[in-house]
Amino acid sequence: MRLTRVRAMAGCGLLGLALPAGAADMRVVQRDFTFSEKELRVKVGDTVTFVNADPVPHNVYSLSKGLEFEIRSQLPGKADAVPFPRPGTAEIRFAIHPKMKMLVHVGQ
């Protein structure tokens, strides 16, 4: 499993998203219809970037209360950043493949 942690520079944001000072970006790769991480721990304000390394589109989402998001039809090679603004645990899923899942634990 690979996990890349990239510190955001002041005034810069990944994919045009501004990150709070000291916020980090974690990278999760989708390859062979699995996430590169089963569980991930981040801090409030951190961002997780989901990268599609498969040759087909993906749909990544969370219905976890307070941490809901949906990346619709993420094309191969694309990366989408998702901010995690509050504490909690987000169960991340892939719409077409229900066994494809991971957890993001967001703490203070």
Number of β-strand runs? 10
CATH architecture classification: Sandwich
The CATH homologous superfamily is named Cupredoxins -  blue copper proteins
Summed over residues and divided by their number, the pLDDT gives a mean of 84
Unreliable stretches covering 5 or more consecutive residues: 1-19
Helix and strand run: EEEEEEEEEE
**The CATH class:** Mainly Beta
Could you explain the architecture of this structure?
With 108 residues, this protein is mainly β. It has a single domain (4-107), classed as Immunoglobulin-like. Helix content is 0%, strand content 51%. It has strands at 4-7, 24-31, 34-35, 39-43, 47-52, 58-62, 69-74, 79-83, 88-94, 101-107. Strands 1, 2, 3, 5 and 8 form a five-stranded mixed beta sheet that branches. Strands 4-10-9-6-7 form a five-stranded mixed beta sheet, with no helix packed on it. A hairpin with a 6-residue loop joins β9 and β10 (101-107).
Structural features:
mainly beta, globular, 51% strand, 108 residues, five-stranded mixed beta sheet, 10 strands, Immunoglobulin-like
Concise synopsis of the structure shown:
The protein has no helices and 10 strands.
